What we know:
It is a single chain. This protein has helices spanning about 5-20, 20-35, 45-60, 65-80, 85-100, 105-115. The chain is mainly alpha-helical. The protein is flat and about 40 Å long. The protein starts with a helix and ends with a helix.
Amino acid sequence: MSYSAMMRQQKAGVQKFSNQDFHEAETCFQAALKEAESYSYPNAYTAKLYKMLAVYYFALESFSQSEQCFKNALGIERNLLAPNSLAAARSLNQLGLLYQAWGQNRRSETRVSSRFGY
């Protein structure tokens, strides 16, 4: 794992995205994720990069891909930190916002109620 390579790819992805070069941005984010995944699993870098990809896909309205990335990040955070950690709560919130934007409000409500027993 090369931390500097991962950070370089992540920074390049953000820059490409801001320049609306979406294909290259995705390529950079995927390369950064691959670097992060070479660390022992689970790790916080992988969760962060899944979230970055989730936001990227969300911005492009690729909701199913965004959902999968948010779920991957959430699983890592629950495994790495704790099921009720602040990071996991943030990921659940982001997933709920995704479902709302996607028009999947029932999925959002079901996920929260099953998680917190409402």
